[in-house]
Write a structure and sequence with these properties.
Elements lengths: L8 H12 L15 E5 L6 E6 L2 E12 L10 E8 L14 H16 L9 E3 L3 E13 L4 H15 L1 E2 L2 E4 L2 E4 L8 E2 L7 E8 L16 E4 L3 H6 L2 E7 L5 E5 L8 H47 L1
Parallel strand pairs: 4-6
Antiparallel strand pairs: 1-2, 2-3, 3-6, 5-6, 7-10, 8-9, 11-12, 11-13, 13-14
Length: 305
C-alpha cells in the first residue's frame, strides 16, 4: 500500500464486490475511462492544463539550444520531467522522485522518442554543434489515479501547440528571432501516441491467467487511486490512430492470456481514436483564437500610429 494512504479492509471488500457486479465506486462502467478536460493557453505556446476526473496537472514545453549527444550529432534532445508533490497526494514526498514519477517519465519518453512521434532530426541546427533541446515539465496538482493516460494526452497536446523561435545562421553563430519579429515554428509531430492503462483484480485470490468471462479475474480501464491501491496487476498499452502498437508495459502482477491481450488492444484503439480527434479539434480551435488575437493586436498597433 502506498505510503501515507490508507484504505480499510471494508472499503477494499466493497470496491471488489462492486467490480464483481459490473460497476465502480465512481459510477463508471468497467470499460469506461474518464473524460479529459483540456485547457490550452492562448497566451503561451506549449502550456496546457488538464483535468482527468479529480486528477489535475499542467504541462509546459520549453526549448533551448544545446550541443547534441556525441553519438547522435544530427538529432535534437527531448526529455520529460515530472513532479508530484505532497500537495497532490499524501503518498508522495517533497524533494524525492517517487517510483510513480520515474515510471511516468520513462513511459512517455519511450512512447514519443522510440516511436519517432517527435521528429528529432528536424531539431538539428548545425550538425554536431547545435541542436534544439525540447523539455517537457509535468506538474501534478491533484492525484486520483490515471496519471500515465492523463500525462500522455497532456504532453502530446502541449507538443502540438508549442512553437519554437525562428532562427538565422551566420557561420557558426545562431541568431534567435523574437516571436514578434518572425513567426515561430511548430514542432514536427509525425503521429500521436496515446497511453491506455488497464488494472486487473483477482477477487478469489488465485494466480491464474486472465481469459475473460470464464475466470473470476476482472479488468478495468483508467483506475482511480482507490482502485490502484488494491489492484493485482496493471498494463499500459500505447497506440496511435494508425493502429500501430507502440508499447506494452506490464510490471509484474497477474498473468495475461495472449488472446485477452489482443482484445484489450482492439478495445484501446477506439479510445485512442477518440482522444486523437479531441486533441486535433482543440488545437485547431486554439489556433483560430490566437490568430484572431494576433490580428486584433496588429490593428491596435496600426490605429495607434
Amino acid at each position: 500500500m502506498a505510503k501515507g494512504v490508507e484504505i480499510s479492509s471494508n472499503e477494499q471488500a466493497y470496491i471488489l464486490e462492486s467490480l464483481k457486479q459490473g460497476f465502480r465506486i465512481d459510477g463508471r462502467k468497467l470499460d469506461e475511462s474518464r473524460e479529459p478536460e483540456i485547457k490550452i493557453s492562448t497566451e503561451e505556446y506549449g502550456y496546457v492544463e488538464l483535468s482527468w476526473g479529480k486528477t489535475k496537472l499542467n504541462v509546459r514545453v520549453s526549448c533551448e539550444i544545446k550541443a547534441p549527444f556525441e553519438d547522435r550529432p544530427f538529432e535534437g534532445i527531448f526529455n520529460i520531467s515530472t513532479e508530484i508533490s505532497p500537495m497532490a497526494s499524501a503518498q508522495f514526498e517533497n524533494g524525492k522522485n517517487s517510483d510513480e514519477e520515474i515510471l511516468i517519465s520513462r513511459l512517455i519518453e519511450k512512447a514519443i522518442r522510440r516511436s519517432n512521434a517527435l521528429d528529432l532530426e528536424s531539431l538539428c541546427i548545425i550538425a554536431g554543434n547545435k541542436v534544439w533541446s525540447i523539455r517537457v515539465d509535468i506538474n501534478f496538482l491533484n492525484y486520483d489515479g490515471g496519471v500515465i493516460d492523463a500525462s500522455c494526452i497532456g504532453v502530446m497536446t502541449a507538443l502540438q501547440h508549442f512553437k519554437k523561435p525562428d532562427i538565422s545562421i551566420d557561420g557558426e553563430n545562431v541568431i534567435i528571432h523574437d516571436y514578434e519579429e518572425r513567426q515561430p515554428i511548430p514542432l514536427s509531430i509525425l503521429h500521436v501516441p496515446i497511453c491506455i492503462s488497464y488494472s486487473f483484480f483477482n477477487p478469489v485470490g488465485k494466480e491464474e491467467n486472465i481469459k475473460g468471462d470464464l475466470n473470476e479475474e476482472i479488468s478495468i480501464v483508467d483506475a482511480n487511486q482507490r482502485e490502484e491501491l488494491i489492484r493485482d496487476g496493471s498494463l499500459v498499452i500505447t497506440m496511435n490512430k494508425n493502429r500501430e502498437l507502440i508499447q506494452l508495459s506490464k510490471n509484474g502482477g497477474l498473468l495475461i492470456d495472449a488472446v485477452y491481450l489482443i482484445k484489450l488492444s482492439q478495445d484501446s484503439f477506439k479510445v485512442v481514436e477518440k482522444y486523437t480527434e479531441l486533441i486535433k479539434k482543440l488545437i485547431r480551435e486554439n489556433e483560430e483564437i490566437m490568430y484572431r488575437q494576433m490580428n486584433l493586436k496588429l490593428l491596435e498597433v496600426g490605429d495607434s500610429r
